Amino acid sequence: MRSLNLLPDENESFSRVSRTDKGVSARMNALTIRLNVRHPHLSISEVQKIYVKELNKKLKNIRIAEVQSVPNIFDARLNCTHRTYVYFFMSKEYNMKRMEEATKLFLGEHDFSNFCKRRKSKTNYRRTILKFELRNIDKNFHYFKIKGTSFLYNQIRHMVATLFLVGKGQMDNSDIVNMLSGSCAKSKSYKIADENGLLLYSFKFSDLHFNVNVNNRIFSSVMNKYIQSTILLISLCYPLKIKEKNENLFENISDEQEVLT
């Protein structure tokens, strides 16, 4: 944006729907930022199309889908009503039934202070989980689908880590209930779930309509590579064989209209 002289100020601030950790992927994201209008003789819609084209020429691993004018008070983070994440993992050792039952404990509003990286400036740890499901792609490849109004830093990776412990029999539902009460410290020490399995899948605004055309085949190809890489890494533990590639993987995940179009 600086190279295209789009920013009115060198230190122009911006707001985004989600700040993903290093290693975490995003199928889509959105941000609000003030931009210069370099073509005053053109309509706003024409300027927006020009900016999309110019920005995409500068980008390599991401693509700008749309630039849209919003009111000055609009904030991508604060005006987002909910975000949906998916977390992919492979295993033969987890008790999936126990894990699925435990996901229901997170539904609703809770104190998630024991499920995040605490910061001195953070005082409100209450968050609302709207959906938490365990799904399978085949008998060895699974994913969690988590929808919430907002999330704390590392919250999803902490929740997934405790579910893995439940699946291994090293933690039970009462441990999660106690941790959600916020009145006790973590009942067990554990390492948070790996960042590479987490993906920001979609989000929704209450008062903004925009069109985002995401090529799901690209993500399907990426996930097939992820599956094969995972098989290679754990092949010494047990052999796996993917019978067929699921090209409709991301269409299957999206069983509802998450983003307004």
UniProtKB/TrEMBL annotation:
* GO MF term list: RNA binding; tRNA pseudouridine(38-40) synthase activity
Q: Where is the Pseudouridine synthase I TruA alpha/beta domain?
A: 102-205
Name the Enzyme Commission number(s) assigned to this protein: 5.4.99.12
Query: SUPFAM superfamilies of this UniProt entry?
Result: Pseudouridine synthase (SSF55120)
One GO CC annotation = cytoplasm
> What Gene3D superfamilies does its record include?
Pseudouridine synthase I, catalytic domain, C-terminal subdomain (3.30.70.660), Pseudouridine synthase I, catalytic domain, N-terminal subdomain (3.30.70.580)
Alphabetized UniProt keyword annotations = Isomerase, tRNA processing
Q: Name a biological process GO annotation.
A: mRNA pseudouridine synthesis
The UniProt catalytic activity note for this protein reads: uridine(38/39/40) in tRNA = pseudouridine(38/39/40) in tRNA
Q: Is Iron there in the keyword field?
A: no
Q: Which Pfam families match?
A: PseudoU_synth_1
Q: Please name the InterPro entries in this protein's record.
A: PsdUridine_synth_cat_dom_sf, PsdUridine_synth_TruA, PsdUridine_synth_TruA_a/b_dom, PsdUridine_synth_TruA_C, TruA/RsuA/RluB/E/F_N
Family statement drawn from the similarity comment of this UniProt entry = Belongs to the tRNA pseudouridine synthase TruA family.
Q: What is this protein called?
A: tRNA pseudouridine synthase
**Which classification does the entry list for the species?**
Eukaryota, Sar, Alveolata, Apicomplexa, Aconoidasida
